[in-house]
Amino acid sequence: MVANFLKYLEDKFPLTDAERELIAEACVVKKIRKRQYLLQEGDLWQKNAFVSKGIFRSYRVDDKGHEHVFQFCPENWWTGDPGSYFSEKPAKLNIDALEDSEVVLIAKEDYQRILKIIPALADFAKTLLERSFVASQDRIHCLISSTAEEKYQEFIKTYPNIINRVPQHMIASYLGISAETLSRARNMMVKK
What we know:
Blueprint: H1 2-12, H2 17-26, E1 27-32, E2 37-39, E3 47-53, E4 56-61, E5 67-73, E6 78-79, H3 82-87, E7 94-97, E8 101-107, H4 108-117, H5 119-145, H6 148-158, H7 168-175, H8 179-191
Antiparallel strand pairs: 1-8, 2-7, 3-6, 3-8, 4-5, 4-7
């Protein structure tokens, strides 16, 4: 699975053999079974996690026991709790596998060291953070100003390959609507 990760990086920018080896040495591959946690709320998150196989969701559980899905992370996405990573405080998110999955993990200190050695990776990481910030803003705007049908259309655009891999109630949670409202929105889209 490290080979998949290196290919993903090489599709973004060139790597020398020495850089490939440096990255590979820092990588740890972890298999996560369906419903198994990668991270639980309250733990400290100090890793970078690349999804090489499967799909994860990050979510919180409110005081009433309702789950609120923040993000789905399929293959070739990164996952983690940025709040915990950057603040070094306990995680507020849970992250679990929705399928049998595999991630490539790089410890924070190793990742920081590699960024200093490989400027192209540092530039790429900066670009990822910028895109993540913009995507978060777009998601908030969609949640507060879009209809259920528009939210679902945006979901399909963001996650075109996971519609049949994720339970509908989790998609509804991600969209901030009830499962019944999601069903109506989907039916309206089919009728058009």
